[in-house]
Design a protein that fits this description.
Blueprint: H1 3-6, E1 12-14, H2 22-31, E2 36-40, H3 43-50, E3 55-58, H4 64-70, E4 76-79, H5 87-100, E5 105-110, H6 121-136, E6 140-145, H7 156-162, E7 164-167, H8 179-191, E8 199-202, H9 210-221, E9 226-229, H10 232-241, H11 246-260, H12 270-275, H13 282-288
Parallel strand pairs: 1-2, 1-4, 2-3, 4-5, 5-6, 6-8, 7-9
Helix pairs in contact: 2-8, 5-6, 9-13, 10-11
Length: 303
């Protein structure tokens, strides 16, 4: 490998930069003094969440011209996007634009359970994107993350209003991960050599049940929070009544079924191995977001 390939990365483009994970990647790269560019649609929101001095590229996954402009002068890309039926098309469009722009590395945020044709569809989408990334020829790293602690924010209003944590989780044990640990790990993979072609699975430090989560919530909120296991049909009805689209309702309920069968229980040491720091425990994340679970809001935060 020549000296140019070993040179420090100039600029990293972060897609999904205002999301729960994307914003932590931006913060981690800035902490490493790596130039960052954020691909965003809503510049006012991006300024509020990322800071006034972050380099913003206004663009859209469905606009190839905007993607090409965003990639100018970029060496590496952190690839993520919102879940939805357009996810494969959106992320593949970034991969195609990166291929023609001679991007040196893509770090793709994915799932531990990727397989084409699998359910929930989230896992199938990631598998199809990973396949396209592999055939694109762009050097890449697959960063497969377990269930996010920030997904609990979807239940925050119910917890604040009723003192109960509702979920169709049964006795599932889930090694949830703090998005900040994903950001820190991604920053390492985006800026250091030796990881291209590798797959890394990220989890939190412990596989916790929803009973454990309720106990942690009780500790940080100072009130008794109880976990209420609900049947799949009830979960579907509640999600539909909240206005969730059909595809999301179906796939969330399907995912919880997989979690009840142990899909999220595996624990890895990858965060510590790559960053040198232990992954943050759930109690720490909940402490940092305690207000969300004590004050009802008119519009619940999305996972």
């Amino acid at each position: 490998m020549n000296a140019a390939m070993n040179a420090p990365m100039k600029t990293v483009l972060v897609t999904g930069a205002t999301g729960n994970v994307g914003r932590t990647v931006v913060a981690a790269l800035r902490a490493r003094r790596t130039p960052v560019r954020a691909l965003v649609r809503d510049e006012a929101k991006a300024r509020r969440l990322l800071g006034a001095d972050v380099d913003l590229a206004h663009g859209d996954f469905a606009d190839p011209v905007s993607l090409r402009c965003a990639l100018r002068g970029v060496d590496a890309v952190f690839l993520t996007s919102a879940d939805g039926p357009d996810k494969v098309a959106h992320e593949n469009a970034v991969i195609d634009a990166a291929s023609t722009a001679w991007i040196k590395r893509i770090v793709k945020l994915s799932s531990p359970h990727v397989e084409i044709g699998s359910e929930p569809a989230f896992w199938d989408w990631h598998a199809r994107i990973e396949q396209h990334l592999h055939t694109s020829g762009v050097p890449s790293v697959r960063l497969r993350s377990n269930y996010l602690m920030s997904n609990l924010l979807a239940a925050a209003d119910a917890v604040a209003g009723t003192g109960q944590l509702f979920a169709p989780a049964g006795d599932a044990r889930i090694a949830m991960i703090d998005p900040a640990d994903i950001g820190a790990t991604a920053a390492v993979l985006l800026t250091e050599d030796g990881h291209d072609g590798r797959t890394y699975e990220l989890t939190g430090p412990a596989a916790l049940s929803y009973h454990d989560i309720a106990a942690e919530l009780s500790a940080v909120t100072g009130r008794k929070i109880s976990y209420v296991d609900i049947p799949d049909d009830t979960a579907r009805a509640v999600l539909a009544a909240s206005g969730a689209p059909d595809w999301l309702v179906t796939n969330l309920v399907t995912m919880f079924g997989k979690l009840r069968n142990g899909a999220g229980a595996h624990i890895t040491d990858t965060v510590r191995e790559l960053t040198g720091c232990q992954p943050r425990p759930l109690g720490q994340w909940l402490h940092n977001h305690a207000q969300a679970f004590t004050t009802s809001r008119p519009h619940p935060a999305k996972a």
